[in-house]
Amino acid sequence: MELNSAAAGRTGRGGRLADVWARIRTSFFWIITVALLLRVGWIILGHTYRFKNTDDNFGFGWEMGRIAASLASGHGFSNPFGPSTGPTAWEAPLYPYLTAGVFLTFGIYSKVSAFLLLTLNSVFSALTCIPIFWIARRIFSERVAVGSAWAWALLPNVMFWCTRWVWETSLSGLLLTTVFWLALTLEDRDGWLPWFEFGLLWGIAALNSPTLLSFLPAAGLWAWYRRAQSDKKSGGKRSLAGVVLASIVFFACITPWLVRNYRTFGQFIFIRDDFGAELRLGDGPGANGTWMEYLHPTQDVYALRQYQAMGELAYIAVRKRQALDYIRADYWRFASLCGKRFFYFWAGSPKATQPWWLNPAKNSLYLTSSVLAFWGLFRALRLRKPGAWLLFWLILLYPAIYYAVFPAPRYRVPIEPEMAILCVFLLTEAGEKATAEGVSRR
């Protein structure tokens, strides 16, 4: 009798624990809380908020930090490299203004500002768990959704950029994942509000990182087509008018910055102007498929003097012409470089490190995640999962510009939430198959 009571007690406790875990594992509160605590803990224990100041604090936000410091000092959106060089459109405005707000309140390049900015990035990264969960549940299953959200919350490689870089990377990931979810679900939502949200979020994304707009045509067409199909069935969702509304909201968001650029530089500039300079950093004598950072104005004194003497637009025009001349001189060579950049984007770039094995080890994990994500995408397409083709267009379109310019590990971060979903889907499917085979053998 006592043994039975003890067993019942253990079973009861186990059942209660199982119930508690069941609630925790699907709770946004706990997923986000754990994700944020891990990231902030990493910032504190790793002292990542202590940026070196031997380079006059340039490593604290790089161009973003310089522009933010200029804004906080009352000199406007200018001086991206340190010296007084005048107004700039080298970076998109949203993140520098956000950084400037922190600088104004807590001090320019102060440790408190560094801690708060990295914590803010960590908040963006932790909140990304929510659209990850929704997307994975919509396309695959709740099991994949739970696994994907917790993977994003717990994996150390996910935490790196938000805890070490004062940059727009984590905010871009949150924005792109959220607009992906909106595009995926717009067909189910009535009224004008979803279209307003769609245009607003794309406007914010454009002001944060115009590169994200490479996915806008696919997302917009997907949302319009799926909504139009629903129109035929229900007759009341007015998809075309919704697209017009979203477009108006989008342009209302970005127009003030376009006007600022025109008034400042005397010509039309779509949000940022540095593409020509970036193209030259990937294409020119000595190009090998990686970033030729030694040509950047922050690394090359001669380039900085050119930039100061010529002005931003003239400097970028010269750099763009040099890159285009190099490309036109040998298109096959350019195609070869694009192939290398494709490989480096998905497998990691070669880099000399100490110890020698560190970078190959990192790149092997980087490549593994890419292979699993591609494999998961092909499986999703083969199984005709709803939304799989939208994942395909994201993976196809977003990285394309980096194949022509140069890749860097942080450039992949905005699409890594969707890659994480695909990896978890593949591993979950493999686990379910293994379990089913084991049961069948018994």
From TrEMBL:
Coiled coil: none annotated. One of its GO terms (cellular component) is plasma membrane. The keyword Metal-binding does not apply. The chain crosses the membrane at residues 27-45, 115-136, 200-225, 240-259, 388-406. Residues 92-255 form the Glycosyltransferase RgtA/B/C/D-like domain. InterPro entries: LipidA_mod_glycosyltrf_83 (IPR050297), RgtA/B/C-like (IPR038731). One of its GO terms (molecular function) is pentosyltransferase activity. It comes from the Bacteria. One of its GO terms (biological process) is lipopolysaccharide biosynthetic process. It is a multi-pass membrane protein. Pfam families: PMT_2. Keywords: Cell membrane, Glycosyltransferase, Membrane, Transferase, Transmembrane, Transmembrane helix. It is found in: Cell membrane. The keyword Transport does not apply. Its main location: membrane. This is Glycosyl transferase, family 2. The lineage of its organism: Bacteria, Pseudomonadati, Acidobacteriota, Terriglobia, Terriglobales.
